[in-house]
Amino acid sequence: MTEKASGFVLLIVGIVIIILAAFSVFSVFSGKMEPVNLFSFPAISLDASNLIGSDAPPEAREALKASGQAPKLELIPADILNKTSNTMAHLLLMGFIASVGYKIGSLGAMLARPVVVKLKTKDGEVVSGDS
Questions:
Q1: Residue 61 lies in a domain
Q2: Residue 56's Cα: distance from chain center in Å?
Q3: Where, by residue number, does the polypeptide cross the bilayer (predicted)?
Q4: Whole-prediction pTM value?
């Protein structure tokens, strides 16, 4: 295969990789596809017994902690935290894959275009050579 033909093949492969990565990101953001479950974090919660004011006697605070009756306040639910993290990880991964496609396409473009060299001799005449 000549350099020009392999350049066009690499250019097409790079463009296809970029298009597939963009389609994957569009599908995830439009809800047609779920991102890969990469993260499984628990919900971010806060123990309510730590929020008791300093005016309560220490015995009452210790009794509340020991009884386990203090409710946990959920600040960020697990499903929202995991979905956001997985979506951002998918976006980062597809950005990396698209940049690989760009590098492949760039290499193909360099191979596909002709290389023209023009040199001037000492006499002033222009010598042209095609590689």
A1: no
A2: 49
A3: 7-29, 91-112
A4: 0.70
